[in-house]
Amino acid sequence: MTEILDGNAVAQSVRDDLATAIDQLADEGVQPSLATVLMSDDPASETYVSMKQDDCAEVGIEAIDIEIDPEADADELYDTIDDLNADGNVNGILVQMPVPDHVDDRAVLRAIDPEKDVDGFHPENVGRLVAGDARYKPCTPHGIQKLIESAGVDTEGKDAVVVGRSDIVGKPMANLLVQKAPGGNATTTVCHSRTEDLAAKTGEADIVIAAAGVPEMIDGEMLKEGATVIDVGINRVDADTENGSELVGDVDFESAKEVAGAITPVPGGVGPMTRAMLLYNTVKAASRQHGIDVDLP
Ligand code: NAD
After folding, report:
1. pLDDT in tens, 25-75
2. Which value does ipTM take for this structure?
3. Is residue 287 a part of any domain in this protein?
4. Ligand 1 within 6 A of 168 CB?
């Protein structure tokens, strides 16, 4: 029987466990706080930020909501980040990407204090992750590690294929999988848009992580029997539904589930885990900045 990995349930258990750490901080008079900075009027970005704000409120993290006019000068964003860096009441800073074209997104990531960089995208935090000394693991790959663990799948010695090499999913995922650490120790291949024979790679893999942003590009015929299949993709495609579209992943769920040992659905798989791990990093940031040891899940 193929196991359908329920991201909502695993994310809920992460949030339940985080409550203990949040209580431990409260005992010392500390409430973790996350500042979200939105410099965009893209409806999807607005939705992402408001979901993150709601998630914080639900677990007792203070959410500070900052919006900057997308037409404003880039300096307004840098000044805001400087103020948040200096503010002792702010533990985590998240600038919702993408920022407008006139703002250099790499400079934005570098401007955030690495101790408050709960996305884990600052070059210092990327370097620490690669070196096996992560401060904050990026939320999506970290959530995937937790999901794989929840399925009782041991990554050690397994052949893993990551499809996609972005800085936010593919590369950090591959880096976590090769670390000499729990959730790592996998023999890891990274495939991307120039990979010549993707099916040959995925067809050999015990674990496939699909993060290409191409609707249903991986089907059952490209998978090995019993593989663990993690679908990161979120693609809106035309469909015969009320609003004329639906969300699909990078994996053709129907054919893949006939072959896979375990598989994530879209929606309800990786997405909720990404959100839960942002809360995790924010609590970890508060604990680090106040020098209070807490029990993190
Ligand atoms: P991206 O566009 O930055 O990167 C996509 C990667 O896929 C690239 O490295 C590219 O080389 C590779 N790729 C593209 N076409 C390919 C092909 N035909 N064969 C093999 N590789 C190919 O995307 P991203 O930010 O990494 O996101 C990937 C997907 O995951 C998107 O659908 C995005 O919406 C989704 N996503 C979901 C979550 C979540 O929490 N569920 C989080 C982040 C991203």
Report:
1. 999 999 999 999 999 999 999 999 999 999 999 999 999 999 999 999 999
2. 0.99
3. no
4. yes
Separation of 218 CA from ligand 1 center, angstroms? 13
Q: Which domain holds residue 75?
A: 29-115
Question: What is d(CA 11, CA 150) in angstroms, rounded to the nearest whole number?
Answer: 10
Distance separating alpha carbons of residues 283 and 281, to the nearest angstrom: 5
For residue 139, the CA-to-ligand 1 centroid distance in Å is 15
Residues 43, 97 within the same domain: yes
Q: Is the CB of 230 under 6 A from ligand 1?
A: no
- My answer on whether 165 and 51 are in the same domain is no
Cβ–Cβ < 8 Å for 247, 266: yes
Number of structural domains (the chain) is 2
**Same domain for 74 and 145:** no
DSSP 3-state of 15: helix
Is 139 near ligand 1, meaning CB less than 6 Å away?
no
Question: Residue 147 Cα, ligand 1 centroid: separation in angstroms?
Answer: 19
Question: 142-182, pLDDT tens digit by residue?
Answer: 999 999 999 999 999 999 999 999 999 999 999 999 999 99
